């Protein structure tokens, strides 16, 4: 009976060692859980950014207003008869 108890005790200690310090241990699980939360937040940001990009692509394909706005903002283009004012602080 003592031998059986000793074997069970050794088995229990070895399993506890693997649980706390081995590969795929409890601390590893907690770290991966945090990484999943971080990655989920990052994915949501990227999904939102992608949706905005798709809307902009759709707008660029369907109308010229977005093209004109982009030309004005990024390239500084103006129409004939318009005056361009730049305010410098």
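Q: What amino acid sequence fits the structure above?
A:
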């Amino acid at each position: 009976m003592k031998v059986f108890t000793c074997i069970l005790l050794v088995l229990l200690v070895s399993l506890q060692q693997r649980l706390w310090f081995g590969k795929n241990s409890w601390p590893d699980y907690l770290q991966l859980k945090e990484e999943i939360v971080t990655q989920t937040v990052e994915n949501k940001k990227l999904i939102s950014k992608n949706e905005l990009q798709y809307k902009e692509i759709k707008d660029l394909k369907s109308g010229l207003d977005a093209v004109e706005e982009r030309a004005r903002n990024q390239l500084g283009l103006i129409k004939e008869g318009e005056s361009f004012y730049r305010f410098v602080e």
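Q: And what stands out in the fold?
A: The helical segments are 2-21, 26-62, 65-75.
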